[in-house]
């Protein structure tokens, strides 16, 4: 059994919030990821009941340099969320695992005594990924190629293995005998489950609706968040839509003879999520029930050409470190980067489909890279409480050949 005397095991997810996940080039397309992060951070802090000045640090993730002030994005999120001027900020990056990494680093800071409470934020504007050039600082020579490229598109390739992220899923499909029909059936289930959760109001528990607003910090210039004309509020995820197998089966595969399509891969969306992480002392003094206990974290490397299998060693490492078995885990979230990738992980781990991504996943909802891990953790924590179950594992594959996983525990669980 886990050694609950270790400092990590007295780390608590006090509260969390996220923006809606909004389709690429949709209502949030013009919003800076800094402002998306500030909005989610303020909502999470408000739900925690803590005074912002009592939070000792911020750990923030954002993958793309989607604004000119991206260098100071982590610091500005903390400042405009109301943290004390002396509370430091750091930016972290583990691609699709970044939302988990901010939670692990927050827990590390608490365990090491650097802070009693930490703000963890992931924010991403896929719409504002730049068109960029890295080779023209010295100007343009006559006749030389002009090398402006789409940052978002180019980032899908791994030059080490010379594969795209979609090709890594195709590699797994071939290795594990996963057919197109199974991938489409899985994607249809993701959409169906997400639509059900949305209709039940479960995602509304996570979401802090976005409105046009101003972020003020005394002594500093105001920031603002604007929405398109005639849009006053964005309160709901926009990508989930009825997507039966028959419709998905009609989509063209990305590669000839492959299994992955635009319909059974993660959707491009914009969004941000945040959590307040605190020590046991902060949790007990706060007077409000926490979301979950952060009971463990693990990361592992895998070959880049099959990066999608990354959750498997990360989950196994996590179980070994905590003394649990898969039978102890009521819910498992594996980020749906691609349908074949999730199915390969589920096959190797022998997962019960009834426990896997029970409210749908990134195929239906979308995947704002740095924010997804926080959304998965928030979704799983609330679902554990609804079901009265004890443990959940949340995990993701990571481009370049990694996987990351967290173990969370329902604080309200009572043994029979």
Automatic annotation (TrEMBL):
Name this polypeptide is given: Thiolase family protein
Keyword Transferase attached: yes
Gene3D superfamilies: 3.40.47.10
Domain annotation Thiolase N-terminal: ranges: 15-278
Superkingdom of origin: Bacteria
Pfam families per record: Thiolase_C (PF02803), Thiolase_N (PF00108)
Span of domain Thiolase C-terminal: 289-409
Stated family: Belongs to the thiolase-like superfamily. Thiolase family.
Keywords attached to this entry: Acyltransferase, Transferase
